[in-house]
TrEMBL record:
Classification via InterPro entries: Beta-grasp_dom_sf, Mopterin_synth/thiamin_S_b, ThiS/MoaD-like
Record-given protein name: MoaD/ThiS family protein
Native organism: Kribbella pittospori
Length: 79
């Protein structure tokens, strides 16, 4: 499986306790499972996030490539 980086923003960063992490994952779904193992609050937040893969919107089934950058963007409020 390729090694990828996930960057957390807003509530995802708070739940993760860090701004980014690296992991081996074949898809965004695999990445979510890997980084949230044993971290139920992070799993909850990632479950409602929008994801960008190298700057382009992606869904959980999107395959990943070595060196990919995934951004986890929870819903934002504001005006």
């Amino acid at each position: 499986m390729p090694e990828v980086t996930i960057r957390y923003f807003a509530a995802a960063r708070s739940a993760a306790g860090e701004s980014s992490a690296t992991a081996d994952a074949a898809s965004i779904r695999d990445l979510i499972g890997t980084v949230s193992t044993g971290r139920p609050e992070l799993a909850r937040v990632l479950g409602i996030c929008t994801f960008l893969l190298d700057g382009q919107r992606a869904d959980p089934g999107t395959p990943l490539h070595a060196g990919a950058q995934v951004d986890a963007l929870p819903p934002f409020a504001g005006g």
